[in-house]
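Before a colleague's protein record goes any further, I have to sign it off. Would you go through it and say whether the fold makes sense for this chain? Take the sequence as given and treat only the tokens as open to question. The record follows directly below this note.
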Amino acid sequence: MEKKIHHIVLTGGPCAGKTSAIAVMEQELTQKGYLVFVIPETATEIIKSGYAPWLKCTTNLDFQRFIMKKQLHKEELYLQIAESVSAQKIVIIYDRGIVDGKSYMSDSEYVGLLHELGLNEISAKDRYDAVIHLVTAADGAEEFYTLGNNEARTETPEQARVLDRKCIENWTGHSHLRVIDNSTDFEGKISRVLKETYAILGDPVPIEIERKYLVQMPDLSKMPNFEVVNILQTYLTTNDDTVERRVRQRGIQGSYSYYFTEKQEISAMKRVERERRISQNEYLNLLTEADTTLRQIAKKRICFIYKNQYFELDMYEFLKDKAILEIELTTECTSVDIPDFIKVIKEVTDDEAYRNYSIAHGDVAHWGR
């Protein structure tokens, strides 16, 4: 059995339920045979030790620098531990990640600190396999909002809501971002966290459930805060007609990460998907296996949150007035709130012609009709 180390970030605004969710995740995953490591929130650790951003002897930028340095040290240490143990199924759960620091400094300060630490916008996000954002109780469950369970927190409900929105914006653009709101009771909220976790881990099989729509090209100026990701996708040769193999280059602001994916069709809405991050050298080596009968797919992906659902809008060079809107779901019966600034032409979830594989074959002439 090949060793697999999963990196999952739990984040969100103050009093979102992260501590309870992590405790349940640790217990449930351990019972399923996973070795679980939990990385506690770095800012809380530092503040409880006696060092805080409001001390006159320090600046906020210094404080954020110390947090990032300690966070990276902990991540590197636990990765070494995970690689050294004999267990084959390992999950590292992070109570917040590097990107969360962006909420407490200017964009230029954040980019500068990343550069100082040898990171960039996309490598800071993609070092984690998935991000689960729990919405603060101050947004939708105000009667349960309290700071009594964390002495390092001082935010009012309004401040908590602002931080929560910033946090979502900062992680937007991650390929596996999930938002857990307060639309159910707390037990239901934790249950949804577990469902998303099992989907991320592929336990027992990584099933991808998505809905896809052909839409009119929206006015981006009317869209909420979004992240732009440039994607170049190349299909590889395969000996099995039911399996797709591909490599993908993802870029944000000129920095890139690389992935290898295998997909096997179950139905139009369901596919078994196995994906792993690879190095640039692995990516270049796999490109030698490119299927030259298929064309590369270049697209600009607009990632955004609407009503706590994570959407991806794919724009292609060959299609000027239309785009493809996608959303991944935990279950097939989950309802989708189409954004009010998006005009849907038709749902194309079950239409093979709108799959990336069909685009690679050049079957796009009818898209403009």
